[in-house]
Design a protein that fits this description.
alpha/beta, about 35% helix, about 325 residues, 10 helices, globular
Length: about 325
């Protein structure tokens, strides 16, 4: 364990007094268990559950304006802004609205779909993200993601469209913590982006639960430190932990051969990570999106840093029927 990780874990678990706490939100899916699209009423019901959780959530984030599901299993496209934004307006939830950006065609379609509803529901939109982990995917296999310059150009196109519509929300992107820490995202930091989401998982680094929270917070510290150093400011770019979480019972264990430990799925470990990692980050004023709100049984397997497949159907704090899975979602701030 690195020294910085030891300090981070102590900070995460010690009962310290802080002057503020971070914002909590959830990544939220847009499909039912059978892969069909959610309705506005479904999102209203989802939001009421999240707002009534142990640590009430006021924010959710999405990934695409037209959600195509998974190519391997098919399914009809889901229009996201037209159904989620009316639900947000009804419940007071704030949405970080995502646009997919892997191809020019997908980005243009998402831009068009977003701008249909953005002005009408502007007060329910907290911010926008363009793309998701494309820098990471491009590193893993060229042609599966995009460069920082590519995504910056798309961000600027959306910012111009929003400005023309009289809107002032921040626009940025989401990517893996190490793509911020290693300088890959520097063109974004220097290019005027005012929002960055940093994804960090102790699980996908094959960490035992005893060190997972330390690893997670240490990763955030490294990414945030680099961003703020390059930006020359701690306030010019709004930063969020874009995703973190732990699979519950029914999920798969994950072992990366670069590490001697294995991340073991299970509700007990998810509870530990939530209390130590998520609550610890919130105590230190990190804004956190938990991945994810509700289980998504329709999803195919995902792939981690080591290329190993893992189940992504048991990551929800709640199951697909909105029953709470992680027993205690509260955080204490002494």
């Amino acid at each position: 364990m690195r020294v910085s990780a030891v300090v981070a874990l102590a900070a995460a678990t010690a009962p310290i007094v802080v002057s503020a706490k971070g914002k909590l939100g959830y990544a939220i899916g847009v499909r039912h268990s059978d892969n069909s699209c959610k309705s506005t009423k479904d999102f209203v019901d989802d939001f009421k559950v999240l707002q009534g959780a142990g640590e009430p959530a006021k924010y959710v984030r999405t990934y695409a304006a037209i959600d195509g599901g998974a190519n391997s299993i098919g399914g009809s496209p889901c229009s996201v802004p037209g159904v989620i934004l009316p639900a947000a307006a009804e419940t007071g939830m704030k949405v970080v609205l995502g646009l997919w950006a892997d191809t020019e065609e997908a980005f243009k379609a998402d831009m068009d779909e977003t701008m249909k509803y953005a002005k009408q529901y502007s007060s329910s939109i907290y911010a926008f993200t363009v793309g998701s982990e494309g820098l990471y995917r491009q590193e893993q296999k060229e042609g599966t993601g995009y460069t920082a310059t590519d995504i910056l150009n798309k961000i600027n196109l959306l910012k111009k469209a929003l400005e023309d519509a009289g809107m002032t929300q921040k626009v940025g992107t989401a990517d893996s913590w190490n793509k911020y820490q290693d300088g890959t995202a520097d063109p974004l930091i220097l290019g005027g982006v005012d929002l960055l989401l940093i994804n960090a998982f102790g699980y996908w680094q094959s960490q035992d639960i005893s060190n997972a929270s330390a690893t997670y917070i240490d990763d955030l510290q490294q990414a945030y430190g680099h961003i703020q150093s390059v930006a020359g400011s701690t306030t010019s770019i709004e930063l969020w932990n874009g995703e973190t979480g732990w699979p519950t019972d029914g999920g798969s264990d994950y072992h990366d051969p670069k590490y001697s430990t294995t991340a073991v799925a299970g509700t007990k470990n998810a509870q530990t990570f939530y209390k130590e990692g998520v609550c610890g980050a919130l105590k230190w004023d990190f804004n956190v999106f938990y991945f994810e709100a509700f289980n998504e049984p329709w999803k195919p397997a995902s792939v981690g840093l080591g290329g190993q497949e893992g189940d992504e159907t048991h990551w929800g704090a709640f199951d697909a029927d909105r029953k709470q899975v992680i027993p205690d979602l509260s955080c204490s701030y002494p």
